[in-house]
């Protein structure tokens, strides 16, 4: 598996309405996309800093991983995941990880926000961090 770059950093927030203006000022850039990913029970907003994106994530349901993350974090948001772009195909990367005995949440790629195919690696295989792998959008 060849990782080319950090694709984005996912930050859980209680409210996109409150978070977007803060991050726009902090990063001196505008939010370029807001979308809902219904099957993940999340609404996302994207900002770009250099070549890296910041993904703000707001839960749309108490069943969402974002709602659970915020609840576990004492009602506060924070960095929820790091996403890496893979060069040699997401399905290949998942197969390689599984062949090495690593735990994955997604055994096959699925559609994520911002037009990416994504898959998550289980925190038990990453020393506690939630890692998302993405198809390299530049490839």
UniProtKB/TrEMBL annotation:
Start and end residues of each VOC domain: 5-136
Superkingdom of the source species: Bacteria
Top-rank EC class of the record's enzyme: isomerase
A Pfam family reported for this protein in Swiss-Prot or TrEMBL: Glyoxalase_4
Keywords: Isomerase, Metal-binding
EC number: 5.1.99.1
Gene Ontology molecular function terms on file: metal ion binding; methylmalonyl-CoA epimerase activity
Biological-process GO terms, alphabetical: L-methylmalonyl-CoA metabolic process
Family designation: Belongs to the methylmalonyl-CoA epimerase family.
UniProt protein name: Methylmalonyl-CoA epimerase
Source organism of the structure: Sodaliphilus pleomorphus
